[in-house]
């Protein structure tokens, strides 16, 4: 168990370091100079040189890399070319917003997917099960941003129940937070719910054909009771795997949803930073995303061992 | 979507929980800050814009968004431009020009204060002008102050600026961001803190969202019409109009999607204003690269393009046709639409004359809504006269600035030139990306700048006519300033003739 966690941690660090090198080099290959953008349509060679010196982009790449990477373990992301201020508080602010969105969306998706998926599996030979399957197929086909736009048209512009866009932190005004967070979370969750419903359905279907479930039913339990008592725990393993993969996808999906709903999250900061070639910001945001994904993987691994004792023993 | 499924027994709990959450949040929807139908007189205003400032320091960062938010509202100059384009007093209540037209003596208003409590006086004028010339200013705009020789403080309310030579352009430039007045103790962190003499103090900047202003109780001039004003930033035009419809914003300024305007015109809850701007939509041809190094080819393009059709199809007819690189609000404007009427036959003849029939060119189009809309129709019109333009998109600003603007690696491009009175910036510099040969206009422009008002206007008209004769670029149209707003908002400055968006003049019926 401990060796397993240590191996995972080592892998975590190695992946992270490799990612910093790749992200740094890839961004240097992108055309566009932050100093040129800051000077715009009035740049002269002299001003450009002065600006590059100011930004530190005139230094050798290796110096720039170590300058940036040495701060990362301490949560110091450096100074933005564009905002001319510390990136760390800005990025941490945005991470909070994005995590709230992603976690709420995933919870909502699971709350929908687990009962619906189980229901669809139990009723897989009946019309109601087929309807759920068809609807979830439709949900997968509709991209999150389209769902977002449709929700805005219907519930914000049409009915006026919710604001069309904007953000209020939950601590500042909980009621307004709920109003503003509902549509984006529903938009994000709709696709996830559809995807997860299908996975829950197939996982439960698989479990239902297992011998131990047949035994349980032979002992007189109803199909639903047998499933809840003996089957769901086993069906949870593939669902946890998919949920973790989808969680990473959700963080990316949030980038687009944040744009649609004008939410100041990590995604919109990333897009703006790319546009301005604020390399330090882009690098740091990407590494935060990489870090989050790696942490999710770590946690899932731990979760496996809790849910399924067999995994603990094989390690 | 799964939400629409009728709940069965096993699902009842989920459904109840969800609908409860929806109902709870729905109940709150009416009472929010976005409600515009309240009975009490409103003392706040929310204006939607697309394109947020990246920081607050226009002395080291280019882009129209920073001066749009801060000039007039936080920073003020000695002089300003009114809605018709005329120069009027601001922090200077009057000024005198010496006989040799080289010395401007400004008499300052009394009682003006910066938002940090410091008094504004002649020393601040000297500090601000000299700072533009120092290496603290990292902006190409600083060259507008090169002509200043010396600033002399005569008394706390009187200051003389001596120019190296007479210049009509300089006083106008003082209405722009280079003329902003700073307090020496308020320039430590310009990127994040803005301290000026204007009617508002910047209270909060939620990056990625909005900038909030509070009206200053100690403002020296006419108090703003509302106590609070907010600039709210959106990534696209549809999001701004959605926010207007749902009551989250009161005004959408400089709307970027003219096709959405009609739905607001039909609704009495809203007003639509069709103002003008300083921005020229320039179809630029690289005067130094083949095939546009030949004036006949450039002229052929001028005849080949039906500018009326361009503005009608690409921008719903909003925009002003002018025929030259000068907006109607500039003093030396004249209607030059007749110089190159739409005449495909003449275009073909010119191309034949130049020996370049069946021409293949690359058209580098920046990733902006206006550019995408216009480029398609331009390509089809060029095709009719035998010019095959292949569209190549360039990410704006990063790639466009690098490739087109800096490296001059392009044949034809399109861009919105927003800066005020920028005709000489664009054409009186052969190293500028357009590459216009300025040998003929440079002496006329220099003489016009030194001349008196009448000589300035007539000289600049000559300059512009020469540029148009040489087909330096095709000015497709002057970009409109479309404003869509709640019908009860008053005082909206519809003409965007300065870089600033003055919030203090807007109020409620």
UniProtKB/TrEMBL annotation, chain A:
Membrane-crossing residue ranges in chain numbering: 12-30, 97-122, 134-161, 181-200, 235-257, 280-307
A GO cellular-component term linked to this record: plasma membrane
Keyword Transport: yes
Alphabetized GO MF terms: dipeptide transmembrane transporter activity
InterPro entries: BPD_transp_1_N, MetI-like, MetI-like_sf
Keyword ATP-binding appears in the UniProt entry: no
The protein's name in its UniProt record: Peptide/nickel transport system permease protein
Organism of origin: Paeniglutamicibacter cryotolerans
TrEMBL record, chain B:
UniProt KW Signal keyword: yes
Biological classification of the source: Bacteria, Bacillati, Actinomycetota, Actinomycetes, Micrococcales
Record protein name field: Peptide/nickel transport system substrate-binding protein
Keyword Transferase: no
Stored PROSITE patterns: PROKAR_LIPOPROTEIN (PS51257)
Every Solute-binding protein family domain range: 87-415
Signal peptide from the UniProt entry: 1-29
GO molecular function terms attached to this record: peptide transmembrane transporter activity
This protein's GO CC annotations: ATP-binding cassette (ABC) transporter complex; periplasmic space
Matches recorded under Gene3D superfamilies: Dipeptide-binding Protein, Domain 1, Dipeptide-binding Protein, Domain 3, Periplasmic binding protein-like II
Pfam families tied to this protein: SBP_bac_5
Listed GO biological process terms: peptide transport
Organism: Paeniglutamicibacter cryotolerans
Top-level taxonomic group: Bacteria
Keywords (A to Z) from UniProt: Signal
InterPro entries assigned: Peptide/Ni-bd, SBP_5, SBP_5_dom
């Amino acid at each position: 168990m401990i060796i397993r966690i240590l191996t995972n941690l080592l892998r975590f660090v190695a992946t992270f370091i490799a990612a910093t090198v790749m992200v740094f080099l890839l961004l240097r290959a992108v055309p566009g100079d932050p100093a040129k953008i800051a000077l715009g349509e009035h740049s002269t060679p002299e001003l450009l040189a002065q600006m590059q010196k100011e930004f530190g982009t005139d230094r050798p790449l290796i110096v720039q890399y170590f300058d940036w990477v040495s701060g990362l373990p301490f949560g110091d992301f450096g100074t933005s070319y564009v905002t001319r201020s510390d990136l760390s508080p800005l990025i941490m602010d945005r991470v909070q917003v994005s995590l709230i969105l992603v976690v709420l969306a995933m919870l909502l998706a699971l709350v929908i997917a687990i009962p619906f998926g189980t229901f669809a599996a139990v009723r897989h030979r009946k019309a109601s099960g087929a309807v759920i399957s068809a609807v979830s197929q439709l949900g997968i086909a509709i991209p999150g941003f389209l769902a977002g736009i449709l929700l805005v048209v219907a519930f914000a512009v049409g009915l006026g129940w919710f604001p069309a866009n904007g953000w209020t932190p939950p601590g500042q005004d909980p009621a307004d937070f709920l109003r503003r967070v509902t549509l984006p979370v529903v938009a994000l969750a709709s696709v996830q719910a559809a995807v997860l419903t299908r996975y829950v359905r197939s996982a439960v279907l698989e479990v239902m054909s297992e011998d131990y479930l047949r035994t349980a039913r032979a002992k007189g339990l109803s199909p639903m009771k047998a499933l809840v008592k003996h089957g769901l725990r086993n069906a949870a393993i593939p669902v946890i795997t998919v949920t973790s993969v989808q969680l990473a996808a959700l963080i990316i999906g949030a980038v687009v949803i944040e744009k649609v709903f004008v939410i100041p999250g990590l995604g919109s900061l990333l897009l703006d930073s790319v546009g301005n070639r604020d390399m330090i910001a882009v690098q740091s945001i990407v590494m935060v995303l990489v870090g989050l994904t790696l942490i999710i993987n770590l946690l899932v691994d731990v979760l496996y061992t809790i849910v399924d004792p067999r995994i603990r023993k094989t390690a | 979507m799964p939400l629409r499924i009728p709940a069965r027994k096993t699902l009842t709990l989920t459904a109840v929980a969800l609908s409860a959450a929806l109902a709870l949040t729905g109940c709150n929807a009416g009472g929010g800050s976005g409600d515009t139908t309240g009975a009490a007189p409103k003392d706040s205003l929310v204006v939607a814009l697309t394109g947020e400032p990246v920081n607050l320091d226009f002395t080291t960062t280019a882009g129209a968004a920073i001066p749009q938010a801060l000039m007039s509202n936080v920073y003020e100059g000695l002089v300003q431009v009114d809605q018709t384009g005329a120069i009027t007093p601001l922090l200077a209540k009057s000024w005198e020009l010496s006989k040799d037209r080289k010395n401007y003596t400004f008499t300052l208003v009394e009682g003006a204060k910066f938002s940090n409590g410091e008094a504004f006086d002649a020393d601040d004028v000297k500090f601000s002008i000299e700072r533009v010339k120092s290496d603290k200013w990292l902006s190409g705009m600083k060259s507008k102050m090169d002509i200043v020789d010396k600033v002399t403080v005569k008394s706390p309310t009187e200051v003389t600026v001596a120019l190296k030579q007479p210049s009509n352009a300089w006083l106008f430039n003082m209405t722009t961001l280079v003329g902003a007045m700073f307090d020496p103790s308020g320039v430590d962190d310009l990127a994040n803190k803005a301290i000026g003499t204007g009617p508002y103090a910047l209270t909060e900047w939620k990056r990625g969202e909005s900038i909030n202003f509070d009206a200053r109780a100690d403002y020296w001039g006419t108090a703003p019409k509302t106590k609070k004003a907010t600039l709210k930033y959106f990534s696209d035009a549809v999001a701004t109009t959605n926010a207007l419809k749902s009551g989250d914003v009161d005004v959408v300024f400089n709307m970027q999607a003219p096709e959405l305007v009609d739905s607001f015109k039909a609704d009495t809850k809203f007003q639509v204003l069709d103002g003008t701007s300083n921005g020229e939509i320039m179809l630029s041809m690289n005067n130094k690269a083949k095939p546009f190094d030949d004036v006949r080819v450039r002229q052929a393009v001028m005849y080949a393009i039906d500018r009326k059709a361009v503005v009608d199809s690409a921008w719903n007819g909003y925009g002003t046709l002018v025929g030259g690189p000068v907006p109607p609000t500039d003093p030396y404007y004249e209607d030059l639409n007749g110089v190159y009427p739409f005449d495909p036959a003449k275009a073909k003849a010119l191309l034949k004359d130049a020996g370049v029939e069946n021409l293949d060119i690359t058209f580098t189009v920046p990733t902006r809504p206006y550019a995408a809309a216009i480029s398609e129709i331009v390509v089809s019109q060029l095709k009719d006269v035998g010019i095959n333009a292949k569209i190549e998109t360039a990410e704006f600003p990063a790639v466009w600035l690098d490739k087109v603007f800096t490296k001059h690696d392009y044949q034809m491009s399109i861009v919105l030139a927003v800066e005020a009175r920028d005709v000489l910036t664009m054409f009186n510099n052969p190293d500028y990306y357009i590459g216009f040969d300025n040998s003929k206009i440079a002496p006329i422009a220099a003489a016009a700048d030194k001349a008196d008002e009448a000589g300035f206007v007539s000289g600049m008209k000559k300059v512009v006519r020469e540029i148009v004769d040489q087909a330096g670029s095709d000015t497709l149209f002057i970009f409109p300033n479309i404003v869509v707003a709640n019908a009860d908002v008053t005082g909206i400055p519809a003409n965007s003739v300065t870089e600033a968006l003055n919030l203090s003049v807007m109020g409620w019926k």
